[in-house]
Write a structure and sequence with these properties.
5-stranded antiparallel beta sheet, single chain, alpha+beta, 6-stranded antiparallel beta sheet, 25% helix
């Protein structure tokens, strides 16, 4: 999911061996003007869910339900954050070893190898139901950060189990249920082979982000590829995704961080929160609060924040918030500042 090198975000690409499809180019995911369809390899965080960024950001059960523990109040704008221990009870390598042991107990896992050069990394090979094995990288950095930095996950065993199940969903592909498909926003990867049936479907949006199709499962959000669609059309999936996110917006929570800033989160499924940006209904809410326009930041995969455009410090505040999240390195999404013009999301020149 990277315009920049993957290692800058602690995410390593995962590729899935699959039969190539003779199908031609699919129609666009969304009908926004000038938003051409591109099929890109999003396996690093979506199609295969074999990295921690995906395992967290696309994990539906987040432990502590306190509102916006990872959001703006966490970095000093408000003082409601839980104190963070300076001495985590285990090292990154110890958490990695616990994940490795749990993975080895699953029948689909053929091999788990520790990367000697990186205490967060595991190399995994999974049996794939008689087809070619799936190989990939599991990085526990985000899980560690959520447990001991952000303090979102309060139960270590549950966090490990979510990561393991997010890995296994790669080969335990769930049935496509139109009630649980979503068009979400994730980091944009370089183009991949458009003829690969396992390549996830995505549409460029703006800056460093793309629109991706995902299936919401009990453990995680799973990126959809052409191979997953069967006889269904992109248009059918797109319509279902629009209905589903509007339904989820009934659980949208809003926090007025200051007179000039509002943060949003889907309470029962935070990783779906960026999807609200793709709806006119969200922007109607923004326009009501900030009629002179707003800056949008998508710095993490479980939050959306808007800043009043007329605030003298709007750009400075947006950049500070983004840089703090980027430096922290947990669940980071985009380092761009956005706004909406003529119904389209565009980047802001700083």
């Amino acid at each position: 999911m990277h315009e920049r090198p993957p290692e800058t975000r602690g995410v390593n690409p995962v590729r899935r061996n699959a039969l190539r499809s003779a199908a031609g180019r699919l129609p666009p995911l969304l009908s926004a003007p000038k938003a051409g369809m591109r099929i890109v390899n999003l396996s690093a965080g979506l199609a295969l869910i074999l990295t921690p960024a995906a395992a967290y950001a696309d994990t539906t059960h987040q432990g502590n339900a306190d509102m916006f523990k990872t959001l703006l109040s966490k970095i000093g704008l408000r003082s409601q954050a839980q104190p963070i221990s300076a001495a985590p009870p285990e090292t990154l390598a110890q958490l990695r070893d616990a994940v490795a042991a749990r993975l080895r107990s699953e029948p689909e896992v053929e091999e788990v190898a520790i990367d000697p050069g990186n205490p967060a990394i595991l190399r995994v090979r999974l049996a794939n139901g008689g087809r070619e094995a799936v190989t990939g990288t599991v990085d526990v950095t985000n899980v560690y950060g959520r447990l001991y930095t952000l303090r979102n996950d309060l139960e270590r065993e549950a966090a490990i189990e979510n990561l393991v199940q997010s890995v296994l969903v790669t080969v335990r592909r769930p049935e496509l249920d139109l009630q649980h498909v979503f068009a979400n926003i994730r980091f944009r990867q370089p183009p991949a082979n458009e003829q690969d049936a396992a390549t996830s479907l995505a549409e460029e949006l703006a800056g460093d982000v793309a629109i991706v199709l995902q299936l919401d499962t009990p453990q995680s959000l799973v990126g959809l590829s052409r191979a997953d669609l069967g006889e269904r059309s992109i248009a059918e999936i797109r319509q279902a995704a629009q209905r589903n996110i509007l339904r989820k917006m009934s659980k949208l929570q809003e926090e007025r961080v200051s007179d000039h800033m509002i943060a949003y989160r889907i309470d029962d499924n935070p990783p779906l929160t960026p999807a609200i940006v793709l709806t006119d209904e969200f922007w109607a809410m923004v326009d009501k609060n900030f009629p002179d326009g707003a800056l949008l930041i998508l710095r993490q995969r479980d939050e959306v924040a808007v800043i009043d455009r007329k605030s003298p410090s709007a750009l400075i505040t947006a950049r500070q918030l983004i840089d703090m999240a980027k430096h922290r390195g947990v669940d980071f999404l985009s380092d761009r500042i956005f706004e909406r013009r003529d119904g389209r999301l565009v980047t802001v020149t700083e």
